[in-house]
Amino acid sequence: MRPFQEFVAVVACTFALSAGVAADVVMTSDGSTIVGKVEQIAGGKLVIVTGIAGRLEIDSSKVIGMSTDGSVHVALTSGDTLVGPVEGSAQGTTVKSRVGDILIPPSEIAMLWQEGTENPQIAMVRQEAKELVEAAKPKWSKKLEGGLTRTEGNTDTLQGHGRLDVKRATKSDMLHMYLAGRYAEQNNLRTTNEYLGGIRYQNTVTEKWYSYARNEIEFDEFEGIDLRATAAAGAGYYWLKKSDHELKTGLGVGFRHESYDSGRTENDAVLDLGLDYRVDIAPWVQFTQSTVYSPDFLEFENYRLTLDSGLLIPFKNDQWALKFGIRNKYNSRPQRGLDRLDNTYYTSIVYSIK
After folding, report:
1. How far apart are alpha carbons 18 and 311 in whole angstroms?
2. What is the predicted pLDDT for the residue at 89?
3. Exposure winner among 89, 174, 325, 343, fewest CB in 10 A?
4. Using one digit for the tens of pLDDT, what is the confidence trace for 183-211?
5. How far apart are CA 268 and CA 30, in angstroms?
6. Can you list the domains of the chain with their CATH numbers?
7. Is 159 exposed, middle or buried (0-12, 13-18, 19+ CB in 10 A)?
8. How far is CA 346 from CA 275, 277, 288, in A?
9. What is the pTM assigned to this prediction?
10. CA distance 64 to 28
């Protein structure tokens, strides 16, 4: 330590003591002298709280000396631990321990913490364990969305749709359950009556690969379907996996049962191909797109294709959002008299339940 730095350190300590306040002094290799309260040395950083600059972190390799006004724990690189006040001098740092004054170079101080406080290493391990436990806890999310349109006059119409999504996610798996429905009347005559529900389980295999199983049931009065049930399982891959940009695909096999109001039933083994895409275009708008393609295993000309695309615009209150979307359902072999393609354009208010 240079004589001038030592002189400044001594003056700083003397002033702090004469003022009757607790003060530690840290001297650095660039000639700076910092007065405050040393909290700890851990992880290669010295933390000191000052009255003017607040809480500072300094690279401990830059510290050439220090003095404390109270007793501290000093853990050395050798594995020994000393307890007592620390004094800095031109010759090095002295710990005034119960077994006598011990002179040590600052470079040999592995950790330092105030007496009466917890060892920083133990505190760090405890915090890491707490974070691991917290990360392992399942995160639940619930969203409710819906829209309603009513007109009166030359034509009386009523149109409504709703959906409830419930998700349970951990670092290793995800469970998604949903219920949805559409209903419409024109001049007191029903024109749409459709309900859908499903459950999907996804298990993480590696950072990019996952396995999944899903089950979905559907009722559609005007498509003539009393029950359409699909069960499938397979594997998927994340092509993109970021917090604001995600793309994943899945491939599996499944079984589809269809019961029609005419009394006809169909049972088919099917392929299950899916694509899900999500991107935050801006802080105020998110685009999502989901595709499910399920052809008959033995007859690829017989298939179902569903696409759902939407723009989600959150309000200032993050619990509320506005959603614009289009849902396309294509049935390559519909009931007689029905179109193959069914398009639904919708606007919804989305509420995240907390």
Report:
1. 67
2. 65
3. 343
4. 999 988 999 999 999 999 999 999 999 99
5. 78
6. 3-132 (no CATH), 138-353 (2.40.160.40)
7. middle
8. 21, 19, 14
9. 0.66
10. 5
